[in-house]
C-alpha cells in the first residue's frame, strides 16, 4: 500500500498508522555501545553531548534518542510530523528516558519547521534520500547548526542500494492479490527472513524493515538518491566533511603543511570517493580487498553507471507491478557480475543467483530459492558528519 500524498515518509506512515523504525532495546547496553561507536566513528566523543544542545529531525520512536542523551544534554528538541511518533516521544520524555534539562517534542512537517536557535549537533537519520528535493531538505535542516557545530545525516548511492533494489523487485509478487497492508507485511517478512538472518545480528523488527524498505515507495524518481558527494555539492565551503561510517577518508597530510591554499576535507572526499564507492557494493568486502584488486576510477564509473541503469529498471518494475520490463533491470546486473574481479567472487555469485532466481519468479515460480543472493547485501545507508564553518 502506498500513500496518496507527497510528503516523503509521513504520508505512508500515517496511511498505515506505523512507526517502522523501532530499535531492539532488550539489551540496552548493547544498544548504547552501538550508538556510541557510531558517534565516535563520526568524530563525536561523549563529551560533545554532555551539556550540549541537540536537535533531531525525524526521531521516530525515540529509541536512538535514549542513547544520544545518555550523558545528559542541556536541551534536546525532537521534531517529527508523524502523530504516532509524537505520542511515543512524549511518553519517553515524560518517563525521563531522554536525559536532558529541556526535552521538547514538536509535531511539525520538517520542511515547515522554523526556529531561531542554533544547535551544537543536528541529527537527521534516514530521511534525506527519498525526499522530493533532498538537496533543499539538507540545506534546510543544516541551517539549524551553530557555527563550529556538527550536522549528522545519512546518504545512499546507486551502488550501496543495489542489493536492496533487487529485493524491492519482489513487489509484484507481494502485492499481486491486493491484500491488506498487514498481509503484505507478512508475505514480505516470510520472503526475506532468511536473507536478514545472514547478518547474524538484528537491531530492528523484520516487519519494520519490510514496511520501510520493500512496501514503502520512498524512491520513485531519479533525483531522490543522495550521496555524500551530493552533500558536498550543496554545502560548498559552508560545511566541511568531518567523518563517516564506514570511514573512508585517508588524510596523511602533515598538519604544519596545511594552510589556506591546501585541499579541504571536502576536496579529499571527492578525490578518494571512487575507492569508497566500490566498497559500497557488498558489505562483506574489506578495504584491503578493494585495494588489492586494483580497481580504478574507470571501473568504478562503469559500476555506478550499471547501478544507475538497474535503479531505473527497478523503478519501472515497482511502478508497473509486473515483470514485463525485467530485462532492463537484469541486463546491467549481468554487466556488473561480468566485470567483477576475482576478489569479489562472492558478490558475483550473489548477483548471478539473483538474476537466475528472479527470472524463475517472473515465470511463476514464486517459491524459488535464491542461493548465494540471500547473503549479498550492500552497505545500504552511510552516515556522514560535517562541521559548520565558524
Report on this structure:
The chain has 390 residues and is α/β, with parallel strands linked by helices. It has a domain at 10-155: Vaccinia Virus protein VP39 (Rossmann fold). Helix content is 45%, strand content 13%. It has helices at 10-16, 28-41, 46-49, 63-68, 83-95, 134-142, 162-168, 171-174, 181-197, 206-215, 228-235, 265-279, 287-293, 297-320, 327-339, 345-362, and strands at residues 53-57, 73-80, 100-107, 119-124, 145-155, 239-245, 382-388. It has a 7-stranded mixed beta sheet, with helices on both faces. Strand 2 (73-80), helix 5 (83-95) and strand 3 (100-107) form a beta-alpha-beta unit. The longest helix has 24 residues, at 297-320. It starts with 9 loop residues before the first helix and ends with a strand.
In short:
By secondary structure, the chain is of the alpha/beta class. It has helices spanning 10-16, 28-41, 46-49, 63-68, 83-95, 134-142, 162-168, 171-174, 181-197, 206-215, 228-235, 265-279, 287-293, 297-320, 327-339, 345-362; strands at 53-57, 73-80, 100-107, 119-124, 145-155, 239-245, 382-388.
Outline the low-pLDDT stretches: 1-5
Would you state the CATH class of the domain at 10-155?
Answer: Alpha Beta
What is the percentage of strand-forming residues?
Answer: 5-15%
- The residue-averaged pLDDT reads 91
Relative helix content: 40-55%
What CATH architecture of the domain at 10-155 would you give?
3-Layer(aba) Sandwich
Subunit organisation of the chains: single chain
| SS-based class | alpha/beta
**What is the C-alpha radius of gyration, as a whole number of Å?**
21 Å
Q: Quick one: CATH superfamily of the domain at 10-155? A: Vaccinia Virus protein VP39
Amino acid at each position: 500500500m502506498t500513500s496518496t500524498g507527497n510528503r516523503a515518509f509521513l504520508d505512508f506512515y500515517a496511511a498505515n498508522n506505523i512507526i517502522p523504525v523501532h530499535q531492539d532495546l532488550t539489551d540496552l547496553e548493547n544498544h548504547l555501545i552501538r550508538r556510541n561507536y557510531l558517534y565516535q566513528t563520526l568524530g563525536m566523543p561523549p563529551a560533545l553531548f554532555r551539556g550540549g544542545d541537540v536537535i533531531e529531525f525525524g526521531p521516530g520512536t525515540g529509541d536512538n534518542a535514549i542513547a544520544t542523551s545518555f550523558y545528559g544534554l542541556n536541551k534536546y528538541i525532537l521534531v517529527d510530523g508523524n502523530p504516532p511518533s509524537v505520542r511515543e516521544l512524549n511518553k519517553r520524555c515524560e518517563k525521563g528516558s531522554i536525559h536532558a534539562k529541556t526535552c521538547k517534542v514538536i509535531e511539525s512537517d520538517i520542511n515547515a519547521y522554523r526556529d531561531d536557535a542554533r544547535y551544537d549537533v543536528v541529527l537527521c537519520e534516514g530521511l534525506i534520500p527519498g525526499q522530493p528535493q533532498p538537496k533543499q531538505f539538507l540545506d534546510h535542516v543544516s541551517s539549524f547548526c551553530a557555527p563550529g557545530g556538527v550536522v549528522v545525516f545519512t546518504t545512499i548511492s546507486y551502488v550501496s542500494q543495489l542489493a536492496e533494489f533487487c529485493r524491492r523487485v519482489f513487489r509484484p509478487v507481494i502485492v499481486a492479490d491486493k491484500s491488506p497492508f498487514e498481509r503484505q507485511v507478512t508475505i514480505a517478512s516470510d520472503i526475506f527472513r532468511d536473507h536478514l538472518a545472514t547478518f547474524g545480528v538484528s537491531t530492528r523488527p523484520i516487519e519494520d524493515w519490510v514496511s520501510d524498505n520493500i512496501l514503502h515507495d520512498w524512491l520513485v524518481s531519479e533525483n531522490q538518491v543522495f550521496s555524500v558527494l551530493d552533500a558536498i555539492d550543496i554545502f560548498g565551503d559552508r560545511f566541511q566533511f568531518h567523518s563517516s561510517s564506514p570511514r573512508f577518508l585517508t588524510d596523511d597530510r602533515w598538519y604544519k603543511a596545511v594552510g589556506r591554499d591546501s585541499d579541504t576535507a571536502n576536496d579529499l572526499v571527492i578525490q578518494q570517493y571512487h575507492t569508497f564507492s566500490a566498497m559500497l557494493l557488498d558489505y562483506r568486502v574489506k578495504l584491503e580487498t578493494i585495494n588489492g584488486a586494483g580497481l580504478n576510477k574507470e571501473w568504478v564509473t562503469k559500476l555506478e553507471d550499471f547501478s544507475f541503469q538497474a535503479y531505473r529498471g527497478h523503478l519501472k518494475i515497482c511502478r508497473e507491478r509486473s515483470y514485463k520490463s525485467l530485462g532492463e533491470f537484469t541486463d546491467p546486473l549481468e554487466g556488473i557480475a561480468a566485470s567483477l574481479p576475482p576478489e569479489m567472487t562472492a558478490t558475483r555469485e550473489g548477483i548471478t543467483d539473483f538474476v537466475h532466481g528472479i527470472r524463475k519468479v517472473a515465470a511463476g515460480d514464486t517459491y524459488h530459492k535464491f542461493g548465494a543472493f540471500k547473503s549479498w547485501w550492500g552497505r545500504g545507508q552511510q552516515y556522514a558528519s560535517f562541521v559548520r564553518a565558524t
